[in-house]
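Hello,

Our lab assistant flagged a job as stuck in the queue for most of the afternoon. It eventually completed. Since we weren't sure the result was trustworthy after the delay, we are filing this so someone can double-check. Below is the sequence as submitted and the structure that was eventually returned. Let us know if re-running is recommended.
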Amino acid sequence: MAAYSTGALVREMSSGLVRLALECEKPPLLAGEKRRALLEEPTWRAYCNGLKCGYAVRRECGADEWRVLGAVEPVSVGAGVLPDDCADAGAGEGDLMYMRAKFERVVGSRDSEAFYMMNPDGSGVPELSIYLLRV
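-- returned structure --
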């Protein structure tokens, strides 16, 4: 399955609410073994508004990612495009779209968390919700 593009996510968001669900497996534990933290799970099945859209993988930030984070550091809330020469994370793949927002975290259990993007207008309705589930 191909990667879910940022453009496809932007199209979904322009049509209304977006719900991203990331699911990972809950393997059986061996004697004396502890389950890792939910955010430390390495691989996920990804769904957008109920439709399977691929997989997600946990990664560490490299030099390119830190450069992008530094470029958007002055932005508190908003979305935009970083030109290719500024972002450089795409290795010549063109401009880089970004979105920066405040998220509210809700922990349901050791195996479920949700992040709700909070609108700065105070309407209280999240445009983007991200659910992490260990099943």
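-- support follow-up --
The delay was a queue issue, not a problem with the job. The result is valid. Residues 6-134 form one domain. The mean pLDDT is 87.
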